[in-house]
Amino acid sequence: MSRMTSESEDGIVSNNQIESPLGEEGNYCGSANGGVLKKGPWTSAEDAILIEYVKKHGEGNWNAVQKHSGLFRCGKSCRLRWANHLRPNLKKGAFTQEEEQLIIELHAKMGNKWARMAAHLPGRTDNEIKNYWNTRIKRHQRAGLPLYPPEASLQALQESQRCLNIDRIEIRNKSQHDTLQSNSYGIPNVMFDNLTPHQSILPYVPELPDITASSMLMKGLSSFQYGSFMSPIMHRQKRLREATTLLSSFGGGMKNEFHLFDQFQDVDKASQSFGLPFPFDYDSTTKNPEFFGENQGSHTLANGNFSASKPTSEAVKLELPSLQYSETDLGGWGPSCSPSPLIESVDTFIQSPPTGTVESDCPSPRNSGLLDALLHEAKTLSSAKNQLSDKSSNSSTVTPGDDADSSALNICETEREDYGHPISPLGHTATSLFSECTPISANESSLDESPSSETFTGKHLFHMNLSRMIVIIYLFEAMSWVPPVIFYIILQAC
DNA sequence: AAGCCAACCAACCGCCGACGC
DNA sequence: TGCGTCGGCGGTTGGTTGGCT
Q: Per-residue pLDDT tens for A327-350?
């Protein structure tokens, strides 16, 4: 902290530090009582005033600081100063090794949730952690190191699995009280706990450490590093947000399901978490024995399709994020083609969808709203199909009085068995989706209005394909290749 | 000694959700 | 229900410091 600070010892505020109120927008610190608010570094005198104020009045009500203490700082600035510097029990100085390790693990699990990470590091502030991480990113970027060591990935996997289990329990309890909205996009996220990937079985499912990171696979499409080839990179998040707003008009529940937009931000982590050397030219064996094991590039995705299919020597020339392919590649889509990596990625996404976004202490960074919605739609259809096929095969009917829980559990047991079958990447999605179920949908279909059998033939297959198409188009839209309006039209067509 | 550069850090900024009226 | 305010959060900026050439 010796670097700190530029504060003027005498506390005199220079003219350029006092700004006229930002009142026209009111976004940051406006002025109260028509006065002007000071910006810039805090002086020790100001600190003393703030400390005194907090002693008297306690934390909170920061906008009142100016009124009561005569401090010409906006409430936000006061809160920040207090939280980051004046608050008691703040640890100062460099992070210890334990803290660094913890940050890495937490970031692997949570992503850029600095405040939540700070909660796990007593005496540390989110700002500190953020700065540390950003510095670390730059350092590793420069050195071509991965951000996450294998241990962190592994722990994130275990933690995620544990949390998924917890979520499942909570969700199962909760789901009994949830009802499906008629709008198929108003879906409780809890619907997807049954879609938990069984990584030990499925060869195409990325490991869970990539939850945060894999969600960031897409994030990176707007990363500055790739700006050179991401043509419409500008205001990506703004566009996505607009799309969110647009799509939110479909239904109340939909907006909440669209966190996927927020996840398209950081490709670096994605490339790393998928075992891609990062940035582009790196001899892992000589430069970083700490982070790279013998089978370099596979530490976070040992059985994933990315690291396995692409030799890392190829990745040295990596120019596109993992999910981004040139337009010429896209032209190769067709029934006779082997699954393109993008399709496969979509399948992977579908196979390991975000799970359990029920807020709990466990980080649940996976939340890919639209995919959730689509998956739910597909699952609802498929579960209904299951019901029908069960009926036809067993010649037994589900009575409305059946115990929903037990039936759900039974169906989910069959789901596990289904996962055991090695299935081709393209075929897997539909197969697995049709073999899956949700307690709610099962319950729902068992209760009443079971669709007639013809409903589940062409129409629902069409829906399935449509859903996949939407996923793909959505991904493309996220990559700025498809204007939002097309996505909108297709959704309307649904 | 001077210039450059990376690292570090504090603070600003804009967005968003919660809350109260 | 709509609006304004407040507080929190994450991204970004800009200043300072220290090391290297």
A: 333 333 333 333 333 333 333 333
Does domain A15-86 bear CATH number 1.10.10.60?
yes
Q: What share of chain A is helix, strand, coil (3-state, %, to 5)?
A: 55, 0, 45
Question: What pLDDT is stored for residue A369 in this prediction?
Answer: 35
Fold matches, A15-86 and A97-143? yes
Question: Which residues in chain A, range 75-94, keep a C-beta under 7 Å from any nucleic strand C atom?
Answer: 75-76, 79
Query: Based on C-alpha coordinates, what's the Rg of chain A?
Result: 26
pLDDT in tens, A389-430: 443 333 333 333 333 333 333 333 333 333 333 323 333 333
Residue-averaged pLDDT of chain A = 49
The CA distance from A379 to A195, in Å, is 9
Cα–Cα dist A256/A189, whole Å: 10
Mean pLDDT calculated for residue range A357-362: 37
Structure tokens at A379: 């699952």
pLDDT over 70 (residue A216)? no
> What are the residue ranges spanned by the domains of chain A?
15-86, 97-143, 144-494
Residue nearest to nucleotide B11 (CA to C1'): A40
Calculate the alpha carbon distances from A159 to A11, A306, A475 in Å.
Answer: 49, 23, 28
- Mind listing the pLDDT tens digit for each residue in A38-51? 888 898 888 888 88
- Residues A411 and A417: their CA atoms lie apart, in Å, by 10
A343: its two tokens: 């399709």
Which residues are registered as beta bridge partners of A37? A19
Give the residues across from A38 on adjacent strands.
A18
A114 sits within 7 Å of strand C by its CB: yes
Given this structure, which CATH class describes domain A97-143? mainly alpha
